[in-house]
Design goal:
CATH architecture of the largest domain: Sandwich
CATH topology of the largest domain: Jelly Rolls
Number of domains: 2
Radius of gyration: 33 Å
Number of strands: 17
Distance between the termini: 43 Å
Length: 318
């Protein structure tokens, strides 16, 4: 029974995949069934290609030691596309093991059976025909030259591929609006910083790390003496819906940080904290930040110019 991909007409009409040169630049007769040694098979992309999703027609409990046995489904690659498949992937989509035998030359001299377990795939080279058996009737499988044919990929496969692409930790940064001037004085006080909105952290992920950042375009010391942070200070963060008593330390500012000479404006900087604040920053939402009650400087005043605060969020799929 001949089986052809439903994408053939698309690729014929668009002529996008025909006659692509081999990576090895070696010539071959693409209609030939002559066996080529593994490792020398050319890499081509064809407009007519083999792509089949099917189920086992007849259950076969054991190896019949006969490739012509009726327990095998027959995938006649050469008969359908008039050439051997240079690279053929067989995927077991069913609930039981499938077994394959392969021939490279004109339907003769089949290989011994090779098992492909549930969910696994195997790649074969220079395939004239492949025959497939399973102990379970209607066990599903796919045979394809190109692994991401959109006519055969299922929604479940798409979800799996997306998860596989997000195997590593992902990171997103979120920044506040600019506050043009934040003034620090010799009086200990809570000094508000701009809010941050975290949005679009994907569903089905878990935040594993959250760090804070503050940056400014310039430091302006209006005092007649050198100026700096007086004593260790801290920037805290909390959810907008909670009280400051629930806040956590986001960035520690050390004593004498941001030293600036008398009556001088100096260039700003970026400061990144290393406190992991997922105890409070754990989801999309609005977050409030401030110098938390213990910030003051040596002289009046030290101005932070064009200030932004940020949160760096690391997350993984769950």
């Amino acid at each position: 029974m001949a089986k052809e991909s439903t994408m053939n007409d698309f690729f014929r009409n668009n002529n996008q995949l025909n006659n692509i040169e081999s990576l090895s630049n070696k010539s071959t007769d693409v209609k030939s069934s002559t066996s080529l040694p593994k490792g020398t098979v050319q890499s081509k992309v064809y407009g007519d290609y083999y792509d089949v999703s099917d189920t086992i027609d007849t259950a076969g409990a054991s190896d019949p030691n006969d490739p012509d046995s009726a327990v095998y489904n027959r995938e006649r690659i050469f008969e359908v596309v008039e050439r051997n498949a240079e690279r053929l992937l067989v995927k077991n989509d069913g609930t039981d093991t499938i077994y394959t035998v392969v021939t490279h030359i004109g339907g003769a001299s089949f290989s011994k059976e090779v098992p492909i377990y549930t969910g696994e795939s195997k790649i074969y080279y220079n395939v004239y025909e492949i025959r497939i058996r399973s102990p379970t009737l209607s066990n599903a499988y796919r045979v394809m030259e190109y692994e991401l044919n959109p006519t055969s990929i299922s929604p479940t496969d798409i979800d799996t591929l997306v998860q596989q692409m997000v195997t590593n930790v992902s990171m997103m940064e979120f920044w506040s609006d600019i506050d043009d001037i934040i003034t620090l004085t010799t009086a200990t006080a809570n000094v508000a910083l701009p809010d941050i909105v975290i949005a679009n952290i994907p569903a089905n992920t878990t935040i594993i790390k959250a760090n804070g950042m503050i940056k400014m375009r310039a430091l302006n010391n209006t005092s007649q003496a050198a100026n700096a942070i007086n004593g260790a200070s801290v920037i805290n963060v909390k959810k907008a819906a909670t009280a400051w008593g629930a806040s956590v330390a986001l960035i520690n500012i050390v004593d004498n940080a941001w030293y600036t000479e008398a009556s001088t404006k100096e260039g700003g900087m970026l400061v990144e904290g290393d406190n992991n604040v997922i105890a409070e920053v754990d989801a999309n939402g609005i977050y409030n930040l401030r110098f938390n009650g213990n910030v003051f400087v040596d002289g009046n005043n030290l101005e932070l110019i064009d200030v932004m605060v940020g949160l760096k969020i690391y997350f993984i799929p769950t």
